[in-house]
Amino acid sequence: MDAVRHVNLEQLYELRVRADKPLRANLGGVFCFLGESGRAERAEGALVPTRKEVADTLFAASGYSVYSVAEQIKGGFLTGACGERIGIAGSYVYEGGGVLSVHAVTSLCIRIPHAVKGCAEEIYAACLAGGLRSLLLMSPPGLGKTTMLRDLSCLVCERTKCNVLVCDERGELSAGDTGATADVMRYADKLTAFTAGIRAMRPDLIVTDELLSSDYAAVERAVCAGICVFASAHLVRLSDVPRRIFDRYIFLDGLGSVGRICGADDDLD
């Protein structure tokens, strides 16, 4: 894509590719339009992808084999070769009470992972200087939780040399360095990854992202077994956390830069 060649890729966090609508990008935490020469001030100067171009982009991201990633697509996303999370909007087809496929894809949300070395230093100093503790990072989508978790994994590996298990259900968390003493399990659901990982890999710490309410039982099982857990969730209030099983709760607000910390709370139980 010519437009991307004219922007600073280190600042490119997200592309919004919508059929018959202006191309937009998140550059350094701020959305703008993209034209043939890069950033465009107004929609009139932006590229406008066609439905075919949206479909071709998805086909290329699948490694030119949509069938090989059919299960991911049923979940509404696809993970690219370099860990890009590609969200999919289109027409969902159901069969037998479950998603059969997604047709007529009209929009893609391409999130580009970045390693921001040292971005989790503040969290480490405030919460982990005295030893490992279980942490939950909380914020709306797109404010740096995955980037923070990846850097936390690196810092723990570097400073404690403990065994870290990265449970990467979507193939995004491990897109980059997770540390010299980290092992990675990709594309397994939380229950499978936690159960198999605890039995087979003997981790001191498990790092995972995007907890759903149904995932807290697996996390609680690990915590009760004496294993610390670093995780993230799309939450903005402590009162919305389904189970109080973490030692610290970290809030990110994204003001000024992706991953900015706006607060941390001890478990209230």
What fraction, in percent, of the residue positions are helical? 10-25%
User: Major sheet: size, sense and barrel closure?
Assistant: 7 strands, antiparallel
- Domain count: the total is 2
Q: Are there runs of 5+ residues with pLDDT below 50, and where? A: none
The portion of residues forming beta strands comes to 25-35%
CATH superfamily of the largest domain: P-loop containing nucleotide triphosphate hydrolases
Question: For this structure, what is the CATH class of the largest domain?
Answer: Alpha Beta
Strand order of the largest sheet: 4-3-2-1-7-6-5
Rounded mean pLDDT is: 89
C-alpha Rg (nearest Å) = 19 Å
The 3D shape can be described as: globular
Query: Helix count, per DSSP?
Result: 6
The CATH architecture name of the largest domain reads 3-Layer(aba) Sandwich
Give a quick summary of the entry.
This protein is of the alpha/beta class. It has helices at residues 51-61, 70-74, 121-128, 145-160, 190-201, 216-224; strands spanning 12-18, 24-27, 30-35, 38-40, 77-79, 85-95, 98-111, 135-138, 164-168, 182-186, 205-208, 228-233, 248-252, 261-266.
Structural write-up:
- It is a single chain.
- The protein is an alpha/beta fold.
- It has two domains: 2-111, Beta-Lactamase, CATH 3.30.450; 121-266, P-loop containing nucleotide triphosphate hydrolases (Rossmann fold, 3-Layer(aba) Sandwich), CATH 3.40.50.
- The chain is built from six helices and 14 strands.
- The protein has helices at 51-61, 70-74, 121-128, 145-160, 190-201, 216-224; strands at residues 12-18, 24-27, 30-35, 38-40, 77-79, 85-95, 98-111, 135-138, 164-168, 182-186, 205-208, 228-233, 248-252, 261-266.
- The strands form two sheets. The chain has a seven-stranded antiparallel β-sheet with strand order 4-3-2-1-7-6-5.
- β11 (205-208), α6 (216-224) and β12 (228-233) form a beta-alpha-beta unit.
- α5 (190-201) runs parallel beside α6.
- It is globular and about 55 Å long.
- It starts with 11 loop residues before the first strand and ends with a strand.
- 36% of the residues are buried.
- The model has no long low-confidence stretch (mean pLDDT 89).
